[in-house]
Design goal:
This protein is α+β, with helices and mostly antiparallel strands. The chain has helices spanning 3-22, 28-35, 181-193, and strands at residues 38-40, 48-49, 59-60, 63-64, 80-83, 91-98, 103-112, 117-118, 131-132, 156-165, 197-207. Strands 2-11-10-6-7-9 form a six-stranded mixed β-sheet. The chain has a three-stranded antiparallel β-sheet with strand order 1-5-8. Helix 1 runs parallel beside helix 3. The chain is globular. The two termini are 31 Å apart.
């Protein structure tokens, strides 16, 4: 395992543990029924296959290896809308996490307290919606699904979670050492420990590059 892959894997495992600690609900339905805080998307419905607009576009041999048949992906973060956030909310965090591979595709924090969602393709470099971390591709923006073909489990689960916080996050970040997934998950854990993580809601999509037989 090369150093970059080892680094990304360690972050992914850590974030997986974090998600278990700070969002213990076993399903979105259980979370919503308990709190009322909900997130939906106009780009995809919960528990459905993600569209090509969200899929990465890595071209090899003239075709996109991230899609069936080599169709181009647009690599755009989805539209998200949330409702019934706690009144004490002072900022939001959005995380896109592949729970199958323990891999962080996107993280945005310090989204404004009066925000009720994000437009499609908000996860571009230099986005004005909030601050973004380095994902596990080591990019400072959204990178879409690109699970390896014919490597079980073939279908990956992508969870988009919105966290409502009672404050903004102050993440250490410099040009040489920008905030990354591990930095963000540790900040969320600390927020939860001090009672500053008020609520969370998730929506899940599926994706595979392996043809069904």
């Amino acid at each position: 395992m090369n150093s970059v892959l080892a680094y990304a894997t360690s972050i992914g495992i850590a974030f997986g543990l974090a998600l278990g600690l700070i969002n213990p609900a076993s399903s979105q339905a259980a979370k919503e029924s308990a709190t009322g805080f909900q997130v939906v998307s106009a780009t995809f419905k919960n528990d459905t296959t993600l569209p090509l607009s969200m899929v990465d576009n890595i071209v090899s041999g003239g075709s996109n290896i991230c899609s069936l048949g080599g169709s181009p992906g647009q690599d755009q973060s989805p539209q998200l809308s949330w409702t019934n956030a706690p009144r004490e909310t002072r900022s939001f965090v959005v995380v896109a996490f592949d729970t199958t591979a323990n891999f962080t595709h996107w993280g945005m924090y310090n989204i404004a307290a009066d925000a009720t969602g994000l437009a499609a393709n908000a996860g571009v470099a230099g986005s004005t919606y909030g601050n973004q971390i380095l994902n596990d591709f080591l990019d400072p923006n959204y990178d879409g699904p690109c699970p390896p073909s014919n490597l079980p489990p073939n279908v990956h689960h992508y969870v988009f979670t919105v966290y409502a916080l009672g404050s903004e996050l102050d993440l250490p970040s410099t040009t040489n050492f920008p905030a990354n997934a591990e930095t963000l998950f540790r900040a969320l854990i600390h927020a939860a420990m001090r009672g500053d993580l008020l609520d969370s809601a998730s929506i899940t999509g599926f994706y595979s590059t392996t043809p069904t037989r």
